[in-house]
Amino acid sequence: MELSIDLGLLPDTLNRLQHRITNLRPLLLEIGEDELDATKIRFQTTKDPDGNFWQANSAVTLANKSGNTPLTGNSGKLFSTIKYQLSGADAVVIGSDRKQAAMMQFGGTKSEFPHLWGDIPARPFLGFSDSDIDRIKQLIADYLA
Question: What is the rounded CA–CA span in Å between residue 21 and residue 91?
Answer without folding.
Answer: 13
